[in-house]
Amino acid sequence: SIPIAKQLASIKALGKASDLEKAFATTALVYNNSADPEGKLSKAETKSLLQTQFWGFIQGQESKPKYQEIISALDEESENKIDFEDFMILLVSLTLMSDLLQEIKNVKTTK
Known about the structure:
The structure is a single chain. With 111 residues, this protein is mostly helical. The protein folds into 2 domains: 1-34; 39-109, no CATH class. The chain is built from 7 helices and 2 strands; from the N terminus they run ααβαααβαα. It has a two-stranded antiparallel ribbon. α3 (43-53) packs across α5. The longest helix has 16 residues, at 19-34. The radius of gyration is 15 Å and the shape is flat. The protein starts with a helix and ends in a 6-residue tail after the last helix. GO terms for molecular function: calcium ion binding; calcium-dependent protein binding; transition metal ion binding.
């Protein structure tokens, strides 16, 4: 498989893209590289993708009720698939509850 950085570089519209645009393009590429031909992920694949690609954000969240609710939903009704929109909602939800987000907020932005 082609590395994400190489895939990003092949998208001409991203040549002068902002950091935020590149971040969302990366997210879309990571999702698309794992999705089936219909552009969807099984719940098990979604859980695995979050655990491998989003570990920094979900690490240490296991005891939080909202995290448990999200993961339980991925473990139930496994025949239902996740589309990109639902995947993004999961990412935002996990990001907002993460301890890493607070650390990011505390990063110095000036010298």
